[in-house]
Write a structure and sequence with these properties.
Layout (H helix, E strand, L loop, with lengths): L10 H7 L15 H19 L3 H4 L2 E3 L4 H17 L3 H13 L2 E5 L12 E4 L7
Antiparallel strand pairs: 1-2, 2-3
Helix pairs in contact: 2-4, 4-5
């Protein structure tokens, strides 16, 4: 089971928000996929806990007409990158930005990639971290 497989975040997404993010890679890192995967698990657990969805339902989660879950993952990933590099002000800033993003998503139960009214979920203030 891939965690939030319908939502992809690459290094280029991180760079689009913070162009100098590659300067924060450790010498042993080729990309930030390990951090993004860890953050996706955190977001997955939080959505699941707050929505009561089963693992099967979680596999069908998609962003609703926007990129709110993706944005939350990007901001939290940047926060983790900065935290691991000791850039605490930047980490706090991006964690705050992540916490301000509402989660509007849908459970694509019929696998038609269309958000039917019965599939939509709105979580205006799901927060992560401190």
């Amino acid at each position: 089971m891939a965690i939030l497989a319908n939502i992809t975040v690459a290094d280029s997404d991180l760079s689009a928000v913070f162009p100098d993010v590659n300067d924060y890679k450790f010498s042993s890192q080729t990309d930030f996929s390990d951090i993004v995967d860890r953050v996706k698990r955190e977001v997955y657990r939080d959505i699941r806990a707050k929505s009561g969805k089963t693992n099967t339902e979680m596999d069908r989660i998609k962003d609703l007409n926007t990129t709110e879950i993706k944005d939350k993952i990007i901001y939290l990933s940047l926060a983790e990158i900065f935290l691991s590099n000791g850039a605490l002000d930047l980490a706090d800033s991006y964690r705050s930005r992540a916490n301000a993003v509402p989660l509007n998503y849908y459970d694509d139960a019929d696998a038609d990639s269309t958000a039917d009214d019965s599939e939509k979920e709105f979580r205006p203030h799901v927060t992560f971290g401190r």
